[in-house]
Predict the 3D structure of the following.
Amino acid sequence: MRLILSILILMPMLASAAGQWNLSDVCPAGFRPEQGRCYLQSLYGDYASLQDSGVGGLKTGLPPLREGFTPQQIDLGRLMFFDPLLSGDGTLACSSCHQPSKGFADGRGYSVGINGQLAHRSAPSLWNVGFLKRLFWDARASSLEEQMEGPLYSPIEMGNSREQLLRSLQENAHYPNLFKQAFGDPDISLDRIYTAITAFEASLVSLNSRYDLYANGVHEVLNQDEIEGMNVFRSFVARCAECHTPPAFTNQQIAVIGAPEPEGRPLDSGVQGVSGDASQRGGFKVPTLRNIELSAPYMHSGRFETLREAAAFYTGGRGHAVPPGEKLSLHWHVWEPNLTDRELDLLVAFMKTLTDESFMPALPKAVPSGLNPVGVPASTTNNPDSGH
């Protein structure tokens, strides 16, 4: 796998001396080719589903992944993901809020959109997003294709329109040929744009952490504190695993936990704002803990700067941070575990074992628009040997 990854980093996409862009015909690291399409290869694929298996087992299966895209579709999505041509004014890309160096989040409590406007919530990580059935903090989208329409056309995020997006790509000197390589003809449609970006985002798989090695039988990779932290995490005292269920480390459900807002901000109605259901007021989708060490700050508003603060919130007492006058239907898993400082430290140590960027995609030093790719370190874009 490491050899495959190295090859992908060095030559994911090449441009000839004449300026012709050629999409990769190699599946991303972690994916096997099958009849021209890419499918995940993981030990978790050998395990039974989580159904009736409890919430703390190590060798349990993953949810279904969005897969079966061609290498060319994935590579086209990769280029568009980093290309600011997709924004209304050519300054923002998908990678503006989902930066590889920050766990495919952006390190902010509230993301910054076009003309410096603040979004309403933080940007969630995209690692393992292809396993998710619900997208956005308020779970209002049921597919990656549906989700990306939100930021693309939001006047406070990427600020584009469907008409301008199509026109920008169709009139570009390179994108029609790239769509031909990915889809068989040069026609650029919204559906094909969404499909390619979905293909790339679904390839962002993180399943090779030290925890995963431990779960698959290599027990020496975790130290005693990390193992004790895992036991606290899985215990019926802390109950972390009941919502952050391995191996995805999310149960993909909605939970009302009563997390506080930043100082001076009113309560975010969360899922209630979508469903109208008062019992879901202040409810949000349970996020994955994969690569959680990299994606601070935490919660929908970035209220907690550190993992230690976020973990401590859950032992502060049921409903202790609910604003006066609010009566939230708190999730029944939220209670008063009375964890010690030592147990909180152990939880943090365990959560850090979920860090894994071994299948980080190649970061493009250039994109077909000719604009500077967003979210790519200068050392990458200035390196003549890093390839497209």
In short: The mean pLDDT is 91. The CA atoms of residues 56 and 337 lie 18 Å apart. The radius of gyration is 21 Å. The first helix runs from residue 2 to 10.
